Amino acid sequence: RAAIVTCGGLCPGLNNIIQGIVRTLIQLYGAEKVFGVRGGYQGFAEAPEELTLQTVVGLQNRGGTYMGSGRGSFDLDKTIAFLKQYRINQLYVVGGDGTHRAANKIADEARRLKLNIAVCGVPKTIDNDIDLLDRSFGFNTAVAEAQKAITSAQTEAKCNLP
Q: Does 127 qualify as catalytic in the annotation?
């Protein structure tokens, strides 16, 4: 049984990750259930959505994140209670540097409590600020889009007569 949570700001490719994890766990590994945690870490205080192969069809073509995202609101006790309640043994955490610091706390607490829970961090950032990574998905797209905006602004500025 697995759960996926997306945290922090939006980044191109989040839905691709959700779809890829769900399809891999169900089709290749026969996962019993895969849950989506809505709204980032605060979603651990609510009931999750079961993600199925049907749920993720075409998801890669949609922007944003299917499950919503959130910043902050990390509560270790609520997260561990959720993982126990839904008998999660694989947690996939998608986010940036702060998200992964919290994921590390989850893994440490699961180990301390002798829970059989693997915590997998999937790095994503448009800031390229995650240690030990040269680049994360989302960064190149963010740079390319920023370059388009700057070029458009320069063109507009040059064409404006005083």
A: yes
